[in-house]
Structure formats: structure tokens, C-alpha cells
Amino acid sequence: MRRYLILCAFLLWFFPSLVSASRIKDLADIEGVRSNQLVGYGLVVGLNGTGDSASTEFTIQSLVNMMERLGMRVDRDNVKVDNVAAVMVTAELPAFAKAGSSIDVLVSSIGDADSLVGGTLLITPLKAPDGQVYAVAQGPLAVGALSFGGKAAKVQKNHPTVGRIPDGATVEREVPFQLPDNRQLSYRLREADFTTVTRMAEAINDYFGASVAQPLDSGSFRVQTPDPQQMPLVEFIARVEHLEVQPDMKARIVVSERSGTVVMGENVRLSTVAVSHGNLNLVISESAMVSQPNAFAQGSTTTVPDSQVDIAEDSGNLVLLPMGVNIGDVARALNAIGATPRDLIAIFQAIKAAGALHAELVVL
Q1: Most buried of 19, 25, 247, 251, CB within 10 angstroms?
Q2: What confidence tens digit (pLDDT) does each residue in 31-84 have?
Q3: What is the span of the domain harbouring residue 136?
Q4: Taking a C-beta distance cutoff of 8 angstroms, is the pair 72, 65 a contact?
Q5: Do 140 and 260 fall into the same domain?
Q6: Same domain (yes/no): 52, 165
């Protein structure tokens, strides 16, 4: 076992490209082969008093219309919808989905329901943008959340008004698609890059020993398929999509000010720059002082607020980052001055404004 671990460490050290290589099927898609979005309106029943309130008019109208279609005459004024919730049902119809296959659906409340836990979705047609019904959904919801409480307190875990139904929809109509008959396949890269598309074409040509792949631009390349007598088209596509290529990516830093998340790419580089960072702490404390009149004196007891404001600024540390440092050097240097994730956002924005950051800065 120890020899095996040493061998794995040796391979990862001297052949790092083996780790970062990805399959073509994970980097590109055949043109025209894509999924389609479906949406529908339905009702969830069986809720334990956590459904829509009486003020949700469309839930009452939907319930009355459904019961009338089932042959019952209902007085709308006497209908209560505490155990019913109006929902929107969404699903993704994958490519080459056949009639009778099952797909997952996502159910989301659109009224003022408190929770969908324990509910069951009634039969709901799912339509595509063309107005045609491609699937029908129905079944019990898996919410994975809870919400309990009263007038004074409430306990909630996760999101109780959204649930999923695994394999909850049955495909009723297929999306027509046929692979091209001209023996040419066009691939679209999910992330356009000239280096990556060139490596893909070289990998395909090296594998088949012929010039069958040709890059068209940074986001696509064309593959000439062999005759069906030599190799079936499906087998040829399977061999192409399992070829491994090391993708190239842009130098990019993604920051999120809402969550304080900072993600840096491998190719991020800096010019020579000095960074000084000092934390400014503002502390405001407030207490109450009681003012009480003397004995037998006229007046009333009052409360006088007493506020104190303290400002403390830590000493800034000056860190020099030489030209061409990589992401590891940047992380160690910024950690040395005690920068938090939110501080890193401000630091990277300042370095970008100074023209020393050779990477794309994306702020979410």
C-alpha cells in the first residue's frame, strides 16, 4: 500500500497534466444536441394547514375549476385552501429523451404557503416555449426542510416552499433530432478558447491518424466522420468524446461581495506592487442611565442613553509582491498581513485599478 501511494505521488509530481486533463465530452457538445426547458402550473394537496391563505385568489379558482372538471359542483365561497398550494413546476428535457422515460421536476410555491412538506403534486402538464405538452408530472414531494412556529417564535431549516420529485415526470413527446447525414459533426465549446480548441483537434487527429478535425474559431471545430462501413457514427462519437485534453483557461479572479468568497485561477500574475493594509474597527456601545428625582421631590424616573464610540486602527503592514508571482505567492503574502476574504476583495480591486493585476476581475 505504501509503495502504491509513493508511485501515485511520483506520477502527480512529474506528470501534472494527467490530473488536469478533461474529456472532450465535458468540454464541448455536438451542435444541436441540447436540453429543453419545460414549465407548468399545478396544485400541491395534502398539506397540514400550511397551504395558501384565502387571500390567494388564483389558488381558489384553480381548485374550483379542477373539482368542476371532475364532475362536482362547488360553491366558491365555501372553499378553503389551507391544505392546498399553487405551484410552478419546472423540468429539463434532456436530448434524445424518449417517450415513456422519466425526468426530475422542481416544484416551487407561487402563493403565500408556509411549507410544502408532506404535499403531493397533482397531475401537471409541462409545456415547452412552443406551447406543446412534452411531459406530465405528478407525485409526492421531497422537500428536505422543516418549518415550525407560533406567534412568538419560529424554527426553520432550509427552504420549505421548494421541493423536488425524483423521476416525477413522464415524457409524452419527443424532441425531433437526427444526427447529420453529410458525415460532418460540428462541436461547440462550452468555454471558447483558441488554445483549447486547437488541442482538441490535435488530440482527435493523433488518435485516428488522419486530419479529420479542423478548428473553425475559438468556440467550435468540425469533425469529418468515416464511412458507416468503416465505423458506425455512434461508435465514432463515443471514441471522440472520451479523448482527454488539457483545457486552457483565462487568468481570472471571481469575488462575491455578498458572501465574501474569493476564487483565483492558476494563471493569475501580478506586476511589482506594494500592498499596505490596515483594519479599521468601529465599535459603538450604548447603555442606559437612570435619572431618579430626590425623595419627596416632584418629577418622574427617566432613562437617559449613554453612548460611547471607540475607533481603533491597526498598524498597516507593507508587503512587496515582485513581478510574475503566482497564486500561491499571492495567497501567502496576503495571509501574512492578516487579510480576510472581504479584505481581499478590496485589495484586488485596488491592485486592478493600479494596473498591476494581469487577470480578469469578476465581481458577482
Answers
A1: 247
A2: 888 889 999 999 999 998 888 888 888 888 888 888 888 888 887 777 788 899
A3: 36-171
A4: no
A5: no
A6: yes
- Cβ contact 219:188 at 8 Å: yes
Is the confidence at residue 154, as pLDDT, over 90?
no
- Grid coordinates given for 347: 485589495
Residue 15 lies in a domain: no
Residue with cell 468555454: 191
Provide the 3-class DSSP secondary structure of residue 299. coil
Rg of the chain over Cα atoms, rounded to whole angstroms, equals 31
- Which residue type sits at 8? C
pTM of this structure: 0.67
- The verdict on 215 and 132 lying in the same domain is no
The b/e string for 210-236 (b: 16+ C-beta within 10 A; e otherwise) is eebbebeeebebebebeeeeeeebeeb
- Region label for 83, one of left (φ > 0), alpha (ψ between -120 and 50) or beta (otherwise): alpha
pLDDT of residue 107 exceeding 60, the answer is: yes
Residues 47-59: tens digit of each pLDDT: 988 888 888 888 8
User: How many structural domains compose the chain?
Assistant: 3
107 Cβ contact list (under 8 Å, min separation 6):
42, 44, 87, 88, 89, 116, 121, 141, 162, 163, 164, 165
Q: Kindly report the CA angle at 146 between 145 and 148, in degrees rounded to 5?
A: 165
